[in-house]
């Protein structure tokens, strides 16, 4: 279920510019919750005007910006491609560079892609479209109808918001379809059913049905809960309802399963009752049938009639455990859901986790990690079981699955590590072969560095692994400028990755980079995530503090030279570190954060995350949250370092009020801080590559001032 929800909530009508939620009587800064309120924006612009010169006037800033621009705009990056069309006719790619800041949607052939300089044909120029329409378009992807993949729903966001619009596009004529499917801006989930029907969940206006109360058809989390079928040539308002959830759900989304030839095998709806829990429904013949999946499970794909899914909870009556990969015979499930029996496909060990799954025409492909190091497995149906092979790929690295062909058994897989640039491989699951097709040129000098993996012991005795990237022969004298990064939530794993900006702007200058694999993530499967949920949240933060203290105890660094950085849920982590253990750090970069955890469910998409953090409206749960919520725990007279807070006005997921209110309360308490709010940019705080480069340059100017000077 996690895979569906992260995808669903990454796309999506927010009430941007709408009135703020009801104010809290003891909070003087709730006016900042009106995203584009005049007072709030005037405050943000004033803070930008105060803070930016502090960083941009640093003599290193321009060099950082130049290097970052060179990296993000480099034309020798590996272009990620997707198989499209019958017979793997073409490979498609979305590309940004200095000449195409908003990006190009383009295509080439496999033969051309294998060459050093592929020949690309533009399908859609987003820069030109934005100029013609005088809009701040940000590309959010395309949904193309199998098996031809010529009719697509192109998704665009205004300034990077989660709220999107889509239009039907013809890749043959390379133009939008006249009188085709076109939906206005909103948080919406959609999928092709056939060439003349789109399944779509969005806000349909006032809901007058039982339980609707005449309110918009959005959940309290601001996502749609009514799914309709929309026929070609009819207005959106005439779409007919096929499924509905409730206003208390997180979201409803259509889910169309197709076989390898593109034929519809099953039409389903997923009803997310919380961020991590969902019900699956089969929609057939005008009826809906609830399928017997546990609430914490995720459908992953269909291979030769076998419906493959993962479990994020134990299912004792079926002898299945959290972390398992299992299957149903789809025909049996459709014939009699209650009697159909699931079967185990693979059970990871306690130190393993399945980090990625894809399907080809005849195979199932897994990215399996052990102790945060990956490998790729190819599995083929055999009798009532599966045969499993391991692909011959570089070891001790991250393995990420790319596009897979539904016409053959070929798929792309990329391999990278902290010091080794990404390589892209073309694998054939039928032959168990791999061929290296692209290599990213080195973007920084890694010859002077090495990587080690250590473990820290957390408050409950659990061993927490972490990676340290450092200069060879590093002196253990506590004087090394060290940047520690972590996330710790939503079952998102921090696996080894090659970052050109970290390498160029930090490692090459003698800095140490650390990634902590704290609980809340998925590095060791669902159990690692579940260990930090709700009332156990403090363990996530204790893990982070344990790694921080271990770095200091090993004399890799010291509080004077230790800085930390994290975004979104990781921004919340930074806020907790600031308020619980400020003595450990001299620099904290708080990116697009959650911060006010008492009101988080009332702003942005916060209500959707109750499954992760708990509900502050419930007294018992509010009691845990109040203990760590950074906003409520800021105090006068504490040894807080001067933090750097950054957010985006267009972030309609976490909501910029968290960052704004954090800064305002710090100011009211008399602390120094730096603040930057990008007026565009969405949850990434950058709407294009140039804005991304500026954000990175600002961050490393700050870190250099605090940790290297």
What does the model show?
This protein is α+β, with helices and mostly antiparallel strands and 709 residues long. Among the domains are: 287 residues, Rossmann fold (3-Layer(aba) Sandwich); 88 residues, no CATH class; 94 residues. It is 21% helix and 34% strand. It contains 15 helices and 39 strands. It has an 8-stranded mixed β-sheet with strand order 32-33-35-34-36-37-38-39, with helices on both faces. Strands 5, 6, 7, 8 and 9 form a 5-stranded antiparallel β-sheet that branches. A 4-stranded antiparallel β-sheet has the order 1-2-3-4. The two termini are 46 Å apart. It is an enzyme of class 3 (hydrolase). One of its GO terms (molecular function) is serine-type endopeptidase activity. Keywords: Hydrolase, Protease, Serine protease, Signal. It comes from Caulobacter ginsengisoli. Its EC number is 3.4.21.26.
Topology:
Blueprint: H1 2-10, H2 38-56, H3 61-72, E1 82-84, E2 90-97, E3 100-108, H4 110-113, E4 121-125, H5 126-133, E5 137-144, E6 151-158, E7 164-170, E8 175-176, E9 182-186, E10 189-194, E11 197-201, E12 206-207, E13 215-216, E14 226-231, E15 240-244, E16 251-258, E17 264-272, E18 278-284, E19 287-290, E20 297-303, E21 306-311, E22 325-329, H6 330-335, E23 343-346, E24 352-359, E25 364-370, E26 373-382, E27 385-390, E28 398-404, E29 410-416, E30 423-428, E31 433-439, E32 449-457, E33 463-471, E34 482-485, H7 500-505, E35 512-516, H8 526-530, H9 537-553, E36 562-567, H10 569-580, E37 587-591, H11 610-613, H12 619-628, H13 630-633, E38 643-648, H14 657-668, E39 673-678, H15 689-708
